[in-house]
Specification:
single chain; 484 residues; alpha+beta; six-stranded mixed beta sheet; 32% helix
Length: 484
Amino acid sequence: MVWPNRPASSRHSLQPQRTPMPVHAPHLLPAPPKPHCHAAALRFTVAASAAAPAPRKAAVIVGGGLAGLAAATHLTSLSVPFTLVEASDRLGGRVATDVVDGYRLDRGFQIFLTAYPECRRVLDFPALRLRPFYPGALVFAGAGEPFYLLSDPFRLPLRSLSAALSPVGTLPDKVLVGLTRLRAAATPDDAILSAPETTTAAHLRRLGFSPSIVERFLRPFLAGIFFDPALDTSSRLFELVFKRLALGDNALPEEGIGAIASQLAARLPAGSVRLNARAAAIDPSGGVTLDTGETIPGELGVIVAVEQPEAEKLLPQLSSMVPEKPKKKSERSTVCLYFSADRALVQDPILLLNGSGKGIVNNMFFATNVAPSYAPPGKVLVSVSLVGSFADRDDAELADEVVRELGGWFSAGKVASWTHLRTYRIGFAQPDQTPPTNPAGRDPRVADGLYVCGDHWCSATFDGALVSGRRAAEALAKDRGLSS
C-alpha cells in the first residue's frame, strides 16, 4: 500500500508519455548566469565579489522522496541552509501521481492512513481534502459466489452482523478481529515496537485466527499493504499498522497520493532543490559528487535519503549495520494496472480482495468511488493490483490476463469494454521487513557528518519515512549546534 505506504525512484512501464502531475517546486535553482565578456563588467563583478559576504555553510540532502522532504522541511524550520539533490525530474519518490487524459494515476496502489501520528503532526490534512474508504472490504471467494462483506464491527455494527455468518472465516474469527482491533488500539506504540518478534503468519496463528479467514481475507488484505503474500513481515509492523487502521480512516487525497509530496515540497525555500542531479559519491568532509563530476559542498553534513538499494550503493558500509537476515528471497514488488470504464460495477468506496486463492489479481477498487476527481466527469477509474514483478509478461499480455480474470469476478461482458490506461511496475515497492527488524528506527548517524534516513531505516510506512527524515535533520542540527 506502499508506505501502504511506501521514498526514491521506481521502475515502471509506461504507455506513450503523457503529462505528469507536477510536484510544485518554486524553489528550484535558477540556471547559472552566462559569463561576462565586457571588460568593465568583469571588473565590476570582481569588485562586487570581493565585497560580498562569505557564502553560508550548508548541508546536502540526497534524495527527494518523503524522507528527504521531511528532512528538508525540518531543516527549513530551523533556518539551516541546505541543497537537496534529486536524481529524477520531480520530487516525491514512490509517492507520486501522474495525470493522463484527465485521470489521476498513483504510481502503484497506495492508501493513506489518517491515524499516522507523524503525518498528523507534519501535514495539513484539510488541504489534502482526504476522501475515505468504506471501513471494510468485499471478498471475492470464487466464480459463481457473491462478494462477501467484512466491516469494522465498531464503526458499522449492523452491517457487521449481516456478515457474521459469511463463509469468510468463522464466527469466532469475526469476534477475534474485533478483539484484536480493541487490543491494538489500546496498546502504546512503545509496547508494540518492543514486543517479541515473529512473522505475521506465525503471529496470526498464535492469535487464534482460522485458516479460512487468513486465506480469504487477511492474506490478500495484508499482501496489498506489505507486498508480502507469504506474510513473512514482522509481527511488530503488523500490530503497528493494525493499530493505525483501528484508530483512523483509509483515504486518498483528492488530487492523488502525490499531493502529500507536493505539500511538503511547497514549503522549501527558493533555490534549495536541484532536480536531475544524481549523486555518484559521498564524502561527509567533501560533500556530494554528482555523476557529472560536480561536487556540492556539505560543510554541515550530508543526509542520505534514497531507497535502500541506492543507499547501499552510495554507502556500502550500511549493509553491515543492519541485522543479518535469513538467506531467503524476499521480493517486495508490485504491478498496478489502471483501466477506464463507463460505470463502476460496485458502488461503494470499498476495497475488493481476491479470497479465492486463484488468479493473479490481489486487490482492486473503483478509485472514482473514493475520489471522483480521479477521472474526468462521467468516467470511472479502475485500479488493479498484483503482488510480484510478473517479468515474464509484457504490459499488453498482463492487461489481457487481468481483464479475463476480472470477467470471472463480475461478467466478461461488463469488463470487456474497459480501456487499459497504463501499467506501473514497481520493482522495489518496500524494503525487506522480515524479522529481525527495528521499526522504531535506527540512529541516523552512520559517520561523522553523515546521516541516513528512509523507510528502510525505520518502519516501511508513510510515517516511518517522515519520522526518519525528521530525526536525521534533528541529529545534524544538534551535532552542529544549530538546534534551538
